[in-house]
């Protein structure tokens, strides 16, 4: 059996594939969390905030996405998502590693993120990738539906 070809490529958040992926993520999160607990950037905000955005492809098909916003002293993962049909192939881990490498290349040795408590697979991914839970940072606040994480590179 041939290994699938996995590539991670830069994309504009307003590309057709990126918009579809972000909307799929929103469709999953919307029924799980009240609006005040959904902190994901809109496509416009991803662009305005200069988030470096990437799409993961498997054999040329868009399978997931994620981005990283660089702040003074850390990078923050944004809009991490892998389509259900592609889960179990370690694409999330590949993307997290890629984004951490991106942060390191930009002279940042700390990567942070916020995720929801119902994102069990995401929490497992982040913890297995070496992220540890931290108090809210930046614009985040104490929220029973939210968890914040950090990894020192």
Compile the SSE list and pairings:
Blueprint: E1 6-10, H1 16-29, H2 43-48, E2 52-58, E3 61-71, E4 74-82, H3 91-105, E5 110-116, H4 120-128, E6 132-134, E7 146-152
Parallel strand pairs: 4-5
Antiparallel strand pairs: 1-2, 2-3, 3-4, 5-7, 6-7
Question: How does this structure look, described?
Answer:
It is a single chain. The chain has 153 residues and is of the alpha+beta class. It has a single domain (6-152), classed as Gcn5-related N-acetyltransferase (GNAT) (Aminopeptidase, 3-Layer(aba) Sandwich). Helices cover 29% and strands 32% of the residues. It is built from 4 helices and 7 strands, in the order E-H-H-E-E-E-H-E-H-E-E. The protein has helices at 16-29, 43-48, 91-105, 120-128, and strands spanning 6-10, 52-58, 61-71, 74-82, 110-116, 132-134, 146-152. The protein has a 7-stranded mixed β-sheet with strand order 1-2-3-4-5-7-6, with helices on both faces. It is globular and about 45 Å long. The relative contact order is 0.16. The mean pLDDT is 96.
How many separate helices?
A: 4
Query: Helices and strands, in N-to-C order?
Result: EHHEEEHEHEE
Structural class: alpha+beta
Q: Which spans have pLDDT < 50 for at least 5 consecutive residues?
A: none
Report the β-strand fraction as a percent range: 25-35%
Distance between the termini: 35 Å
**How many DSSP E strands?**
7
- CATH evolutionary superfamily: Gcn5-related N-acetyltransferase (GNAT)
What attributes does this structure have?
single chain; 153 residues; alpha+beta; Aminopeptidase; seven-stranded mixed sheet; globular
